[in-house]
Amino acid sequence: MALPPLYKYLDVEGAKLTLGNRTFRHAKPSDFNDTEDLTIQSIFPEELQTALKRASDGILDVILKHLNDPPTCASPMREKLAQIQALLRADPKLAEWMRAEIKNGGLDGAYDPAHMQAVAEATIADVNEFMQGWRVLCVTTHRDSEKMWSGYARNHTGIALRIEPNIEKDSKFQKFVPVVYQAKRPPLYDDTLEFVAGGLFGDRDARSMAMMNKIIYAKTLPWQHEGEYRLAIPIAPGEEPWNTLPYHPEEITELNLGAAMTDADKQDIVAKAKAVNAQIKVFQAKKDNEGRIIFDQS
Predict the structure, then answer these.
(1) Beta pairing, strands 180-182 & 218-220
(2) Buried b (16+ CB within 10 A) or exposed e, 36-45
(3) Predicted model pTM
(4) pLDDT tens across 68-80, in order?
(5) Checking CA distances to 75, which of 44, 112, 252, 287 falls within 20 to 30 Å?
(6) Nearest alpha-carbon partner for 276 in 294, 253, 296, 257
(7) How far apart are CA 182 and CA 43, in angstroms?
(8) How confident is the model over 252-293, as pLDDT tens digits?
(9) What is the C-alpha to C-alpha distance for residues 134 and 138, in angstroms, rounded to an integer?
(10) CA angle at residue 221 from 52 to 145, to 5 degrees?
């Protein structure tokens, strides 16, 4: 799917660094101005104790649904599950007896509520910490946003750069993904039994990636005005932590100058932009008689 026009707002200092160094700063999650952004607040859609009760009641149904799938959880749970699966395959009528045994704490710890609660609480902490190993570049579809020019471009004194990925060079900018806005940050799992099934039989790598995507591309409704897209890149194992990545010069195709920029900053930034891409289009933002932001091409 083709991307819409995407813009990166910058204050004057950020503009000079971005153009002068030919790199974009990719933020660490803890640097975001929304303190809940790129975090999870809960694993389940319901309260923890309610979720644990539902997990207890439904674990046998999960096992029956995955009767022929090899368990992927850690030992000794993996071996216990394999034994239960073998018994059920040999005699499906054992299911109701097992359901009663699990409810009463039997079957040699097939379901341990205390352990499940500890796992749930630890998962929240671990995922939030794990997110600090990612770097995120945020852009917007809005070139003429008053809030964006006021906030990210420091009261119209900064700029907005348009980014267009070079497909022939397999640009990383092709991987921008739109943010989904909702009333509250989503739980890690939409369904408690999905958590159980994933923990017992899921592909760990695929499960981790799905969790990361759900966290990265979700924001709450108060931020909907930003029309945000994100590019998220993990720091590779053994790689030194980084905060900037280079771009291809031809991918910076427009320079939009804030309405309140000083002449000195304009001259400096235009010169830096043309040194990056001699074909860059330069626009001057201004306000019309109704206070809307419009642009004149220089």
Answers:
(1) parallel
(2) ebbbbebbbe
(3) 0.79
(4) 999 988 788 889 8
(5) 44
(6) 253
(7) 16
(8) 999 999 999 999 999 999 999 999 999 999 999 999 999 999
(9) 13
(10) 155
